[in-house]
Design brief:
binds ligand L45E5XJ5, binds magnesium ion, alpha/beta, binds adenosine-5'-triphosphate, 8 helices, Rossmann fold, disordered C terminus, about 50% helix, 5 strands
Length: about 220
C-alpha cells in the first residue's frame, strides 16, 4: 500500500542519523536523547532483530546475514524504518546504525528523502569497542569474537565512507565515545540543544524534506 503523503506536507520532520562502530554507545546515547529531547529512537539493528524473532518472510535470511556481520539489503531496512516512522506519530527521529553503506544512503534518499539535520558520529577506539561488546551480555548472536571482527571490517570499509560523505556536507558532529556514557552525553546534549534552538529560531516549520517524496516505490 502506498504511504505517499503520510507525512503532512509542510510539517518539519527532523531526522538525525547516529553512526559509530559496533559497541560505540549508539543505543546508550539514543536512550538519553529520547528522555531529554523527545525524539523517537529507531535502531536499524533492533528492527531487524524483531524481524528475526517474529519469523517473518525475510527472518531467516536476516538472521544469517547478521550472524555473519554482513549488511541486510537496503530495501528491507528502509521499509522497516519508514513503517516505524509513520507509526510513531512523532516528528523527531534518531536513526541508529543507519546508513551503514552507500546503498543504505541512496535507498533512504530515494524512498524517504528527508535530509538528516545532522549525523552524530560516536568515535571510539577499536580495543574499547571490543571490550564493551564482549562484556555486553545481552544474548546477541553477533556478539562473539568472529562476528565482531567482521562487523569492524564492514564499519571500516563501508560505513566510514558514508560518514565522510556527510562530513563533506558539513553535517557530521563527532563526539569522543571513549569517555563515560554521562560525559559523552554532555557533549551530545550540547549538539542537540544547539540544533533545536536553531530550529526554534527559524520558526520550526521550514522543511528540508523533498516536496513529493517517492514513498511508494518499495511499499
Ligand atoms: N561511554 C561508555 N562507556 C562505557 N561503556 C559504555 C559506554 N556507552 C555504552 N557502554 C556500554 O557498552 C555496550 C555497548 O553499548 P551500546 O549497546 O549502546 O552500543 P551500540 O553502539 O548500540 O552497539 P551496537 O552497534 O553493537 O548495537 C553496552 O554494554 C553499554 O552499556
Ligand atoms: N543499516 C543496518 C543496520 C544493521 N544491520 C545488521 O544488523 C547488525 C546489528 O546492527 P547494530 O546496529 O544493532 O549493531 C549489523 O551487524 C548488520 O548485520 C544492517 O544490515 N544494516
Ligand atoms: Mg545498538
Amino acid at each position: 500500500m502506498s504511504q505517499a503523503g503520510a507525512f503532512p506536507p509542510g510539517k518539519k520532520i527532523t531526522v538525525v542519523f547516529v553512526i559509530g562502530g559496533p559497541g560505540s554507545g549508539k543505543g546508550t546515547q539514543c536512550s538519553k536523547i529520547v528522555r531529554h529531547f523527545g525524539f523517537t529512537h529507531l535502531s536499524a539493528g533492533d528492527l531487524l532483530r524483531q524481524q528475526v524473532q517474529s519469523d517473518t518472510e525475510h527472518g531467516a535470511m536476516i538472521k544469517n546475514l547478521m550472524h555473519e556481520g554482513k549488511l541486510v539489503p537496503s530495501d528491507i531496512i528502509v521499509r522497516l524504518l519508514l513503517t516505524a516512522m509513520l507509526q510513531s506519530g512523532n516528528d523527531r527521529f534518531l536513526v541508529d546504525g543507519f546508513p551503514r553503506n552507500e546503498e543504505n544512503r541512496r535507498a533512504y534518499e530515494s524512498v524517504i528523502g528527508i535530509e538528516p539535520e545532522l549525523v552524530l558520529f560516536i568515535d571510539c577506539p577499536r580495543e574499547e569497542l571490543e571490550r564493551r561488546i564482549l562484556h555486553r551480555d545481552q544474548g546477541r548472536d553477533d556478539d562473539n569474537v568472529d562476528t565482531i571482527r567482521k562487523r569492524f571490517q564492514v564499519f571500516h570499509d563501508s560505513t566510514l565512507p558514508v560518514v565522510l560523505y556527510y562530513d563533506r556536507m558539513g553535517k557530521v558532529r563527532r563526539v569522543d565515545g571513549a569517555k563515560s556514557a554521562d560525559a559523552v552525553f554532555d557533549d551530545v546534549k550540547a549538539i542537540f540543544t544547539q540544533l533545536l534552538t536553531t530550529q526554534a529560531s527559524q520558526g520550526g516549520n521550514a522543511s528540508s524534506r523533498r516536496s513529493n517524496p517517492p514513498l511508494c516505490s518499495v511499499l
